[in-house]
Amino acid sequence: MTEPTQPDVSIEEPENTPSSLGTAAARNLATTTKSVPQMQAITSRWLLRLLPWVQTSGGTYRVNRRLTYMVGDGRVSFATTGAEVRVIPQELRELPPLRTFDDAEVLGTLAEGFIQQEYAPGDVIVRSGAPMDHVYVIAHGKVNKIGAGKYGNETALGILADGDYFGVQVLTDSPQENWDITVRAVTACTVLALPQSAYRRLLDESAALRAHIEGVQADPGGDRNEHGEAAIAVAAGHAGEPLLPGTFADYELSPREYELSVAQSVLRVHTRVADLFNQPMDQTEQQLRLTIEALRERQEHELVNNREYGLLYNAAFEQRIYTRSGPPTPDDLDDLLATVWKSPAFFLAHPRAIAAFGRECSRRGVYPQSVETLGSRIPAWRGVPIYPCNKIPITDAGTSSIMLMRTGEQEQGVIGLHQVGIPDEYQPSLSVRFMNIDDKAVISYLVSAYFSAAVLVPDALGILEDVETNYADDEPGAPAATAAARS
Question: What pLDDT, on a 0 to 100 scale, did the predictor assign at position 156?
Fold first, then answer.
């Protein structure tokens, strides 16, 4: 009997079955090539690289200046310390009722009575019909005086700006009146207000003030140069032996002092990580590098935005200008150059503000040149480089600022302050100090960076404010949302 024939059986292998060792398994036996830890928040930090850094022994830098104020120019002047604004006591003689009053002690007490107030565009400072119970002095910004027109409609009676004042009737010894105008902020404003109650208390205490309150005679103002400094008498072009004039340069009695600020962080590394996982890279070193990068980023942010020493807050009010139409145009940067015309070093702007300036140049058919700095090509205007800085804020409305500065002690410009040679110094003015090892075997290091900045004379720093960075409605490619928001 013939046995049945068995059919041929073939085993089919899956299509994806590997025929050799795969890369995923092979990596277990191989050493990979690694990058050091990356950090997206690291920027070029041009401000830190470009500022000349001055050794600040003792932790404090004092800026001595000529005594500067000009009585008789019709405008009140102010002393600023970061975001804090104060009336210069002698400048109160610009107010007509105090024109001939020269009691320095009483003027100082009166100046201390002013209260700083901030207003946004559109805010009403005083309203028609309300009691007139404050004297207002505009430190910075523009306001509209609005009153009733001939036919009962509202009409603009005038614009007041830096150094102007209103409500001086409060200083006269008369019954309280009501405002017959409305004063509304056109731009962001810093205003100093003197309450009538505080003035009345001082009036009751000072017989000298009561005797002079109605004096309105013109003040000669003294011999001053164009910057408000006491003029230095100099004789020139003489012949023979005439008597030469004597003179001296007066100084500020209370000069501004800048104390070094600090940015700190505590770095924690487990001993097991530091001991075992330190090849091919030292884990502690990489953790320290990233911590220092974060501190340097914060350092630049503080140099721009700190309310005490930040550059945005330490520019003199007369050095702040506004754009002509919103976006930064070549004309606006020319105006900014006119504020820092003595050896300007560089512009500093948010990248979006630089892009907006580039769009305005393209609209006009102007093509700015570029300069090479530290191996990078940087856009420039009139030969002055424009460096990007993302620490300059952009408001919700899309506006920003552009700074222009002169730098260096010899140039009487903007300088950075630090102190080298501090204990446990890791980098100039930056220390890494071992703290302890806790009961969880975690090592702690205190990382500290000491720094500040100083503006030696007011005309060393200028700011173009309220720069629009968004697309204009008529620009090609303008986002629909932007156009809708503007409408």
Answer: 72
